[in-house]
Amino acid sequence: MEDPRLQPIFIDQSGFLRIFLRSILPILAAVVAGGCSSNQGNLRLLSVDQKHEFSQAFTRAYLDRNDAGDADIVLVQDNIEPARQDPSQHLDGWVMPRQLVHIRVFWTPMSGVKADHPANTNASIHWCFICDDANRPGLVEYCGSGLVELDDSSTGASVRIRKAWMKEGCRRGEMVDPLGPSILQGSFHAEHDPAQVRAIMAQIKAAAGGNTDAQVNAVNPGH
Questions:
Q1: 129-140 b/e with 16+ CB inside 10 Å = b?
Q2: What pLDDT, in 10s, does the model give residues 36-63?
Q3: Which 3 state secondary structure label does DSSP give 219?
Q4: Any idea where the domains of the chain sit in the sequence?
């Protein structure tokens, strides 16, 4: 049933909100109307005020472990395909933002750990929305930390983000943050592929201007 508190985000016709909001408005409307599902797994951002929601099914997810034993997980969604488009919103000529996510898990939580306790945070998370339109380039990056569980298997790992707290980390160009501070949850399966993990982490670092290293270390200063 639709939550009456969730409302789609509307376009500010006078300002720089247009590129990002015109790109994601149809998706937000579809999420509010009925949600979305995929065999690939979804990530879901819910604004802290519980008025706005964004959910995305990612097409690819990869996993690797670094020399310290940390798990690096990346997700990729190159093309956003709106499930339902408002006919009043003309998207011709607009480039949909691609999405890249990096999750670093520092330690494995014990069974029964409560996701709401700050001491149980075991992962840093970066979620980038990147507009590659040469005429209207831009970036919004959400950064945060939370409790993430891994269940390794021979084909990869099942990943569950039980709860993470996210906020805008950086923003450039004509992109905006339409959600504000948000709660992130979701689950998906990631394949073991070190080369893909390194490549996508490099893309995120380049897009965010190198800010990700400092933010990852801030979550786990002992590393």
A1: bbbebeebebbb
A2: 434 457 899 999 988 889 889 998 999 9
A3: helix
A4: 18-219
